[in-house]
Write a structure and sequence with these properties.
The complex is a heterodimer. Chain A is of the alpha/beta class. Chain A is built from 7 helices and 7 strands; from the N terminus they run H-E-H-E-E-E-H-E-H-E-H-E-H-H. By secondary structure, chain B is of the alpha/beta class. The longest helix of chain B has 33 residues. The chains are: A alpha/beta, B alpha/beta.
């Protein structure tokens, strides 16, 4: 199912624990590093880089492929994709093959074939969204930067 | 305090959200920002020390030396000067289009144009921008539409619903509502394709953040993140948290105040229009106003509470009128709970050249009113006294 609303994305993050980040980069100015380092240090998600060119990022072991990750760790709850759009269908096929429950295509990773493959295989699908931004939307970080989170609350969310 | 040096470094690198330093973000300021963004239907907001600071930061987020802007010529005098003097000195040139007329705007857009700029309700004459047509003309050329919505507030008009991409406020005015606080804000829709090739400042690696690409990293938040993390940081015109708190108090009564402002403005405009001493009046809420159709489309709840008129007897009659008023305050602000009156040519628009004044539609006889929340009978009583004084001057002249 394609998750269109913020509350659906929130529910997905709430019910998930493991995230395999395909294309996570150790280069500190890359968007994937921003997302990896944020999710590693905030909240409850267990994030793992999938990158054949890296052995570890910030002390977290990297796996060369999703299959290698799944062989040791089992199926991830979410596969988070930082690849070019033309590589997205392969990422979708890999995610389906290892039995991931959901696939998350980051900003700009938009490919109709990849979306259709994952949706047809029964995965929850998020398209053109950032997992860091969506996490921060609900834990209060986004509000600290003046963003309209759509979350109205009189309670302080972060210090 | 920061939890650790690593936590501090993550915050400064923008990899984590948190309180870094009040010039870049503050929890009280962000409460104001999110409320205003929500009222405007925007993706988020960046608050600033003043409306002019909001404007400068919005423009420097999209334009640099060698770039070009297209703006309506009917703008606040301080805005015209910011564009025609200060930004020009920085290498950003502006073409002013008389009346903000759409075909003129379309023709003025160049390959280096980075934004089209207008006010929803023009200062001082209260003329109404055709927002949807301007947005279409700008978007057809790959350019965003920036709208100063100060005079309308999101209660009367939400420009993003009509195609605007960036909304600017002087929150000093109706949002604060009492003339007690100075502040500004930038709201953005999150819809404009900043990465489509025309805005390299947002969509190429930035030397201000070790080569980070804002569009790639922050997606739809790229404009707002660059405005905050580079321009607010470097310009330094941050909103003080105390002022943010005062502006939040203002927002809480905006929906109660604005209907009273426009009802009083309508009554005052109708009173003035019927008087022999009044040579002309420019208020889009009047039935015979040439702006009437645009007002009906974009401002169905009222054409704002700031407008101009002129007296028979010209500038001298105007001087007698303003100096006779007792209840109306002779002040340069607008959007106060109190009613305000001023002579733009010698004050708010004084730095304009004669040509710029003519193009902006400001004559030597122009008087600007900002209609407040007092009992309208008291306001009209005072205006009658002013008109009587003006008539005595006219009689001496004749």
């Amino acid at each position: 199912m394609i998750l269109e609303t913020a509350s659906e994305r929130r529910a997905l993050l709430d019910r998930s624990r493991t995230v395999a980040m395909v294309g996570a980069s150790p280069t500190v100015t890359r968007p994937s590093y921003f997302v990896f380092s944020y999710l590693r240090t905030h909240g409850k998600l267990d994030v793992t880089p999938i990158n054949p060119a890296a052995t570890e990022i910030d002390g977290v072991r990297a796996y060369p492929t999703l299959a290698a990750y799944a062989a040791e760790r089992g199926a991830p709850d979410i596969v988070d994709v930082f690849r070019s759009p033309n590589n997205a269908p392969q990422a979708a096929r890999d995610a389906i093959a290892v039995g991931a429950k959901a696939i998350w295509f980051q900003y700009g990773v938009v490919n109709d074939e990849a979306i259709r493959l994952a949706d047809d295989a029964g995965l929850d699908v998020v398209v053109d969204r950032c997992m860091k931004v969506e996490s921060a939307r609900f834990d209060g970080g986004l509000a600290l930067y003046g963003m309209n989170t759509g979350v109205l609350t009189a309670k302080r969310r972060v210090r | 305090m920061f939890d650790s040096t690593e936590h501090a470094a993550e915050l400064f690198a923008l990899r984590s959200y948190g309180n870094i330093y009040t010039r870049i973000g503050n929890p009280t300021v962000s409460a104001f920002e999110e409320k205003l963004a929500s009222l405007e239907g925007g993706l988020g907001a960046v608050a600033t020390a003043s409306g002019l600071a909001a404007q400068l930061i919005a423009i420097l987020t999209v334009a640099e030396n060698g770039d070009h802007l297209v703006a309506s010529a009917n703008l606040y005098g301080g805005t015209i000067t910011q564009f025609s003097v200060t930004l020009r000195r920085m290498g950003i040139e502006t073409t002013f289009v008389p009346g903000g007329e759409v075909e003129g705007v379309r023709a003025a857009i160049r390959p280096t144009t980075r934004a089209v700029f207008t006010e929803t309700i023009g200062n001082p004459n209260g003329n109404i921008a055709d927002l949807a047509a301007l947005a279409e003309a700008a978007h057809a050329a790959g350019v965003p539409l920036i709208v100063d919505n100060t005079f309308a507030t999101p209660y009367l008009c939400r420009p993003i619903e009509h195609g605007a991409d960036v909304v600017i406020h002087s929150a000093t005015k109706f949002i604060g509502g009492h003339g007690t606080v100075i502040g500004g804000a930038i709201v953005e829709s999150g819809r404009f394709p900043w990465d489509a090739g025309r805005h390299p400042l947002i969509a190429t690696p930035s030397p201000g953040y070790h080569g980070m690409n804002f569009a790639e990293t922050f997606g739809e938040y790229a404009f707002l993140m660059r405005a905050r993390a580079e321009l607010l940081r470097d310009v330094g015109a941050a909103l003080s948290p105390m002022n943010a708190w005062l502006l939040v108090q203002g927002l809480e009564t905006l929906a109660l105040r604005m209907p009273e402002h426009v009802a009083n403005a309508q009554a005052v405009a109708e009173f003035l229009q019927a008087r022999d001493e009044v040579a002309w009046i420019s208020y889009a809420g009047l039935p015979d106003s040439p702006e009437r159709a645009l007002a009906a489309r974009y401002l169905p709840l009222g054409a704002g509470a700031v407008f101009t008129f002129g007296l028979r007897g010209g500038r001298e009659a105007g001087r007698a009128f303003i100096e006779t008023l007792e209840l109306w305050s002779h002040l340069a602000n607008v959007g106060d709970a109190k009613s305000l009156v001023i002579h733009p040519a010698s004050t708010t628009h004084q730095q304009l050249t004669d040509d710029e004044l003519r193009t902006a539609g400001i004559g030597a006889d122009t008087i600007r009113l900002s209609v407040g929340l007092e009992d309208v009978d008291d306001l009209i009583w005072d205006l009658e006294r002013g008109l009587a004084a003006a008539a005595r001057v006219s009689a001496v002249q004749a």
